[in-house]
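Task: complex structure prediction.
Instruction: return structure tokens for all chains below.
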Amino acid sequence: MNADVRAMKTPAEQALSAAFAAARGALPGKGAVGTLREDAFRRFDASGLPHRRIEEWKYTDLRALMREAKPLAEPAKTKGVVQGLSGVEASRVAIVNGRYEPDWSDFNAGDPGITLTELFAFAAEQTSYRLGDVPGKDDTAFWLNTAFMTGGVVVRVKKGVCVEKPVQLAHIFASAAAAAMYPRCVVIVEAGARLTLIESFDGPDGIDYQVNSAIELVIGEGALVDHIKIGRDGDAALRVSTLGVTVDAKANYRDFAFTTGGAVVRNQTFVRFGREGTEATISGATLIKNRQHVDNTLVIEHAAGGCTSRERFRSVLDDESHGIFQGKIVVEPHAQKTDAKMASHALLLSDEAESDNKPELEIFADDVQCGHGATAGALDNTLKFYLMSRGIPEDQAEALLIQAFVGEAIEDVAHEGVREALLQASVKWLDARA
Amino acid sequence: MAFLEVKNLHVEVEDKKILNGLTLSVEKGQVAAIMGPNGSGKSTLAYVLAGKDNYKVTEGDVLLDGESILEMAPDERAAKGVFLAFQYPVEVPGVATMTFLRTALNAQRKTRGEAEFSTPEFMKLVRETSKHLGIDQEMLRRAVNVGFSGGEKKRNEILQMAVLQPRLAVLDETDSGLDIDALKIVAEGVNRLRSPERSMIVITHYQRLLNFIVPDVVHVMAKGKVVKSGGKELALQLEAKGYAQFADEAA
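Output:
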């Protein structure tokens, strides 16, 4: 039988088709970018929104979760402010409703070693960089981003340049009515350069806006990159963020995803270690409540030998929230001496909270060290009793233990100011719970 | 009335009866040793005094300074002055010992309506106390008991006791797992805390600890109750003859 396996289009899929048909001529970027869009949309259109029978999207059934596709967000009409991280000085780049807004930004390019270019200006000038050719390029959500991308920036740190002040890419939804935004950014850190990159997502509560963002991160030989992604979206937001990372030899790469906001969030990270000797830590902390749904999905490809990667995620799940961790480590046949360890721990604060952990190892080399571990459970009563027996009231004992659980994850953040800000944010989350 | 009055206490754990009409009085300032064979209910008594859940009191009462504590949560009991030095101190990952001590002390003081300690006052108190116990600054910065040796964990229990200054300290097999040097440090720490204002219950299986912490009275437990009480010489008698002689008395 040669049945069409493709189910009938959902209203959201139909709306996306209509939106693309209406916008294709007006979307920015000509020539190659236009071709890229058409191609990406064709691929999306053939597969539709990912759903639970697509293994990679098993726990985040976008077809069910995304009931409708919101119209493309218009550029912001009035100037607003970028919310930073308390106590952290950063060069702020505002990407509002999916477009770079220089007026909102305070990118301080005092250092000639770092440049900032608008995405489509970069694409027009620069032909050697192939936009969209990153790990994760075969993902449906990424295709959608490519089809609709409305703007963003390209940050480039030149060879050997050490950028002291973190760069913050601040994604902001600033509209009174729900809409969808599709920012795309590229960050290139050349050989031996150093950068702390903060990425933040902010938007108002009560508006069911949609974000499909993507970042292409290219890390050069011997470069040092700290990427910290802070998800503080409004409580009705749906966000899918794709991060595609290409890592060269002997680099040092740390990635941390901190998520407290949004109704439905998926952080999907695709990393490829293309040459030997890199060390990477990919980690995160999620604190959610009510009916929030947060999915951290990783695909880590060890395509070259002698790389060390650590993947560790912790989540605190209250009320009826749902936390998901999927981590896949692929070790290619010639990637000998790979050392990869993955761990995921969930703390369930209510009987209704749900945690799904899916670690996967695909190992094709024989001389490797790989492992994974996952736990999900309630607060340890023995610990709680110990604290209470010392005079600490129950709620305070719980808060202290939760804080400790999250704090151990946040330890992975190298930048002291950012680490402190995240600890404060987790305390704030706990205080709001009490 | 004695400072601690345990009256005809019956306790079940998971439907199994462990304490079987235990009656015990500890005077203010008194150090009472509780000895007994394994399974006699010594640790259960310790946990019931501290307020651990899933220990079901089916009969009897526990009065501290004339007030029943059985309905109180563990933290309320602690604020009233009850302290349990655990047989197996718990590791608390991610919580620095200093933070733990400070949170506990100030929480107790707050419950009692006392002013919280300032940081310099608190640091001074901990520094002086820890010095005697051979606990260095590095240990205080580490997470509570994480990676500590058995001896370090027990010393940390005594440090907590010294900082929290309880009115009733219950030491549950504090000697278990300690070599003689560690035992001496711990015993000295406990002896330094002996005071006319502080009662202590020293639970032990062996007489050895009582050479270092000399009790005022010795109670022998068997099958969930006190079967014999006497002076410190009772401990020596037990050491010589064993617990078998009391098995019948409890029956």
